[in-house]
Design brief:
Pathway: Carbohydrate metabolism; tricarboxylic acid cycle; succinate from succinyl-CoA (ligase route): step 1/1; One-carbon metabolism; formaldehyde assimilation via serine pathway. Pfam families: ATP-grasp_2, Ligase_CoA. The protein has 397 residues and is an alpha+beta fold. The protein contains 13 helices and 19 strands. It folds into 3 domains: 90 residues, Dna Ligase, domain 1 (2-Layer Sandwich), CATH 3.30.1490; 127 residues, D-amino Acid Aminotransferase, Chain A, domain 1 (2-Layer Sandwich); 147 residues, Succinyl-CoA synthetase domains (Rossmann fold). Helix content is 35%, strand content 25%. The protein is elongated.
């Protein structure tokens, strides 16, 4: 689960990490008052969406102006005007794709007199199963570009969970960034608190870009992105309360309510499968035969008729879906239950696109009989390869 920048900075303040003072704005008429509560003379007006690259992004609507989603204002009036231009508009960045995301919140914060910019992140290293710290002197840039062009400017190391964070970890970051004097002590304290926040809140990503040295020599975090392990949210009600459902795909939200593993994709063939591995194989074979999957959807091993029905509804609600492939291997799950769920969904929402069903495993013959005798226009398949070829052929015409 991701949260907005202003929410992330609230957490950073709670853990004693230096960030700028700011105000969140939901209505354009409140922007002038919010900006007036800060001293200036410089204000930073930031669009709040769950995507990076806001500063270099552009708005679809000409009313939003030519500047990106992060703007510098030199008066309260200008800050309010920037907020008015951005609220309700669609911001397109390198991470949103051309569809962009609607800006429903603006964050106005005090400007900072920056001397140098760095990059700092804490991430889960899947190879070592440890928390890794990544830092670079090239702040304010995409870390992917730095990794490609100047990888020697990135410092990465992991922390042994048996010892946890130690001050020498913070000093290693400070020395790598070229900090001196009291800045080293500040850096150690900041990295220590970031590590504590990361662990206590079950994060999987914490990115600070830029992490700055100001002209007065102090350190400050000017931007923050945070991601949390969704499987651990049950023990963090405070984090779950920060969720902004307007940033989520409605189909993915519906799937969560029925404990379905669903991810929307850009293709034309909807998939309903049980088991993550089988789902990946199904997506791969669809691509092999010349089409693209519209989603990843794992109904799990213990799906009920009701859950299968809801899964089918979610797939058919996607206007990009031109055909559906149901691929079930019934081990724990019974094929007759899947068949009943598919037929119930078809009768409830209708079937306007080709549907191929491949069943194998427990009660497979009973499941096939249910589909065969349903009177519905469902294409049966004998194996996965056969199923993929049939649905691709049906979609491609």
């Amino acid at each position: 689960m991701n949260i907005h920048e202003y929410q992330a900075k609230g957490l950073l303040r709670d853990y004693g990490v230096p960030v700028s003072a700011g105000r969140v704005v939901l209505r354009a008429e409140d922007a002038k008052t919010a900006a007036g509560e800060m001293d200036g003379p410089l204000w930073v007006v930031k669009a709040q969406i769950h995507a990076g690259g806001r500063g270099k992004g552009h708005f679809k609507e000409p009313e939003a102006g030519e500047k990106g989603g992060v703007r510098l204002a030199r008066s309260v009036e200008e800050a309010a005007e920037f907020a008015r231009q951005m609220l309700g508009r669609t911001l397109v960045t390198i991470q949103t794709g051309e569809q962009g995301k609607q800006v429903n919140r603006i964050y106005i914060e005090d400007g900072s007199d920056i001397d140098r910019e760095f990059y700092l992140a804490l991430l889960i290293d899947r190879v070592t199963s440890r928390i890794s710290i990544v830092s670079s002197t090239e702040g304010g840039m995409s870390i992917e570009d730095v990794a490609h062009d100047t990888p020697e400017k990135i410092l990465t190391f992991s922390i042994d969970p048996a010892t946890g964070f130690q001050d020498f970890h913070g000093r290693r970051v400070a020395f790598g960034l070229g900090l001196q004097g009291n800045q080293i002590k500040q850096c150690v304290g900041i990295v220590r608190n970031l590590y504590k926040l990361f662990v206590e809140k079950d994060m999987d990503m914490l990115e600070i870009n830029p992490f700055c040295v100001l002209k007065d020599g102090s350190l400050k975090l000017l931007d923050a992105k945070m991601g949390f392990d969704s499987n651990a949210l049950y023990r963090h009600a405070d984090i779950l309360a920060l969720k902004d459902e307007t940033e989520e795909d409605p189909k993915e939200l519906a799937a969560q309510k029925f404990d379905l593993n669903y991810v929307a994709l850009d293709g034309e063939i909807g998939c309903m499968v049980n088991g993550a591995g089988l789902a990946m194989a199904t997506m791969d074979i669809i691509k092999l035969y010349g089409a693209e999957p519209a989603n990843f959807l794992d109904v799990g091993g213990g799906a009920t008729k009701e859950k299968v029905t809801e899964a089918f509804k979610i797939i058919t609600s996607d206007p990009n879906v031109k055909g559906i492939l149901v691929n079930i291997f019934g081990g724990i799950m019974r094929c007759d239950i899947i068949a009943e769920g598919v037929l119930a969904a078809v009768k409830e929402v209708g079937l306007k696109v080709p549907l191929v069903v491949r069943l194998e495993g427990t009660n497979v013959e009973l499941g096939k009989d249910i589909i065969r005798n349903s009177g519905l226009n469902v294409i049966a398949a004998d194996n996965l390869s056969d199923a993929a070829q049939k649905i691709v052929k049906a979609v491609k015409g």
